[in-house]
Specification:
0% of the residues lie in helices and 0% in strands. With 118 residues, the chain is low in regular secondary structure.
Length: 118
């Protein structure tokens, strides 16, 4: 391949740009666009220096669970409330509990302990 390395010592004897296969093989390029230490050929998130796999939220979005409720912020409509992942009737920070079972959440039930009144 005319790269100056004898073919007997050249893992990539058909590629003048490489003498060792590296992680990407003889025909692959060992570029690392995001400088995360993983060559682009093995990095599904080649433009995201914080990830080498999409994870739950995808490339370019951190897999963070700010409120510790087990749901990543990218899928959590209440990312700062550990009690809910959806606002529901009572907003993110207030439970939608219905203490008296009258189908009206306590947060809007003026008689939260009387099932015959809302």
């Amino acid at each position: 391949d005319d790269d100056g390395v004898p073919d007997c010592n050249d893992e990539c004897e058909l590629n003048p740009a490489k003498t060792l296969a590296g992680e990407c093989g003889c025909q692959g390029v060992e570029d690392d666009r995001d400088n995360d230490g993983t060559p682009d050929c093995n990095d599904p998130c080649a433009d995201d220096g914080n990830k080498v796999a999409p994870g739950v939220c995808g490339c370019g979005v951190p897999d963070t669970d700010s409120d510790g409720d087990g749901t990543m912020d990218c899928e959590d409509n209440c990312p700062t409330s550990a009690i809910k992942t959806e606002p529901g009737v009572c907003t993110c920070t207030v439970s939608d509990v219905d203490s008296d079972g009258d189908q009206t959440p306590d947060c809007i039930d003026e008689c939260a302990n009387d099932p015959t009144k809302a």
